[in-house]
Write a structure and sequence with these properties.
The protein is an alpha+beta fold. The chain has ten helices and twelve strands. β5 and β6 form a beta hairpin. It binds 4-diphosphocytidyl-2-C-methyl-D-erythritol 2-phosphate and adenosine-5'-diphosphate.
Amino acid sequence: MSAVPQPAPAVTVRAPAKVNLHLGVGPLRADGFHPLDTVYQAVSLYDDVTVTDARAWSVGVTPVGGVDVNDVPLDDTNIAVRAGRALVAHHGTDRCARIEVAKGIPVAGGMAGGSADAAATLVALDRLWDLGTSDDDLLALAAGLGSDVPFALLGGTAHGTGRGEVVEPVDDDGTWWWVVVPDDGGLSTPAVYAAFDDLGGGGGSIGAGAVRAALGTHDAGELGAALRNDLEEAALHLRPGLVATRDALRGAGAVTLLSGSGPTYLGLARDHEAAHRVRQALLDQGLTAVVATGPVAGAHVVTHG
Ligand SMILES: C[C@@](CO)(OP(=O)(O)O)[C@H](O)COP(=O)(O)OP(=O)(O)OC[C@H]1O[C@@H](n2ccc(N)nc2=O)[C@H](O)[C@@H]1O
Ligand SMILES: Nc1ncnc2c1ncn2[C@@H]1O[C@H](COP(=O)(O)OP(=O)(O)O)[C@@H](O)[C@H]1O
């Protein structure tokens, strides 16, 4: 009897996009970062990352649901490859992997898609190679890759401090309905922070208390009134055309919020039906819009075989 060739072992990990329900930004620090007081929420747009053992590092990206992946690098600068290299360096091994990203999170949209890929790659390779990396070590490796990466591991809803990398879970047992409106082309996160500085930002940011209190009410009206993003003015300064997107969402009955450093705009809707009505109103105006809910889980294994 001849042996049936077995496919190479592969692990697929799913990681979510994030929104910042509150993004309070303080004055520029000496290390080039800004202190944050933020509340992250993981929402139901996902990247799925599949890893297999290989002789050299490589990465491929496939769009899901019409996401434009043209600006995602396919070399060693891809944050998923950087995550893989950081993990093997941590363990002192010299293994390599092929990384395949199925990308459903808008690129450079302020929804932390690259951070999701980094978090997913850490978890996937840890499982593929049975490395047994501790949660604390995964969080530390994540923080070394980017300010948003630890949250992508955690998921749910969390308070972020430091430069955003120090994360603590926050109680949030509601289901919140978002209409996500990506823009054509991304916005550079450093450019938005620089515009924030140029506009004299960081002097008067308030804390995340209002959002945290509103989460407990389960009332989208209460949460909508508490949403805040200190980078919104800077992003609108760099991309004035976003005002039309914001106004279209408002006209359709949603409370609006810029997602992180933008340019994706978010509309918070009262419930599932309202979210789909808002989405349809935007589609009727020729905009792209998808419905997402939060909070959802952080990076987690979906297949292992
Ligand atoms: C704005 C936020 C809000 O959650 O998200 P995005 O909109 O990018 O998804 C984050 O602060 C983005 O975090 P992330 O995208 O991981 O940024 P990093 O790679 O750590 O940093 C990229 C650059 O952004 C600026 N930066 C980032 C974080 C921070 N607290 N202060 C900063 O000034 C710095 O110029 C830094 O060099
Ligand atoms: N795996 C990746 N996915 C997306 N972007 C990546 C990735 N690796 C590197 N990048 C670079 O990071 C930039 C920011 O991407 P992304 O994380 O999607 O946005 P944001 O920081 O706005 O949340 C992109 O413009 C791209 O050049």
